[in-house]
Design goal:
about 85% helix, mainly alpha, 9 helices
């Protein structure tokens, strides 16, 4: 457990020192959400109708900004080889890195999302559901993104390939995350969407570390 927590602390410190993580993701999130009212106009009904989708798409793109550095920096300086030789299984190392990625990227997005949703005139009934949906959905983004980051870790400038690999896998999280908010604002039950988001998170937590670890072993051999 001490090794697991040490990796989380190390990755958080590196993310903050490199200027990435929370500040970059939140700044990008704010810019993308702000551009939509400027581009389509201040019509209240239209902004309210698209608010859930806009917030989720912006959050999804913001979460991808630091994915390419999830394993790449350790791969380049040899730290990944040392981590692979450590007593901690590589699958748990992946979970630790995903946890650090969520704490530096997903958690700030979760905090900022309800505030930015107000800029898009989201109905008050949808704000709490948005926060809950992002609490369930953003960890899945980090876990799924780790698979793409592990597959492209040995490729120079693999950011574009990483996006092509990860974006299709993000679609279910986007659909059910936005659907939960739209259901709440339409006086419908958001519970089915939230349950599916929870199921996606459990599936990602069970499968993504194994797939990422296998990809890392392939690239380290």
């Amino acid at each position: 457990m001490s090794h697991f927590l040490a990796i989380i602390r190390r990755d958080i410190k590196l993310a903050l020192r490199q200027g990435g993580g929370a500040p970059l993701a939140v700044a990008f999130f704010i810019l993308v959400v702000t551009f939509f009212p400027l581009g389509i106009g201040p019509e209240h009904a239209l902004l309210e109708r698209i608010s859930a989708g806009v917030v989720w798409v912006a959050a999804l793109l913001a979460a991808m900004l630091s994915l390419d550095r999830l394993f790449q920096a350790d791969f380049e300086d040899g730290g990944l080889d040392l981590l692979a030789l450590s007593p901690l299984p590589l699958e748990l190392i992946v979970v630790a890195k995903c946890t650090a990625h969520w704490l530096t990227t997903g958690l700030p997005l979760l905090i900022a999302a309800p505030v930015l949703a107000l800029l898009l005139d989201m109905a008050p009934d949808g704000l709490a559901v948005l926060a809950l949906a992002m609490l369930l959905g953003t960890p899945s983004l980090s876990l799924i993104g780790a698979i793409g980051a592990a597959l492209t870790v040995g490729i120079r400038r693999g950011g574009v390939l990483l996006s092509l690999l990860v974006l299709p896998l993000y679609v279910p999280v986007l659909i059910f995350g936005a659907g939960a908010v739209e259901a709440a604002t339409s006086a419908l039950a958001p519970r089915p969407h939230l349950l599916i988001l929870g199921a996606l998170l459990l599936a990602a937590l069970a499968l993504a570390p194994w797939a990422s670890a296998a990809a890392l072993r392939l690239n380290l051999d």
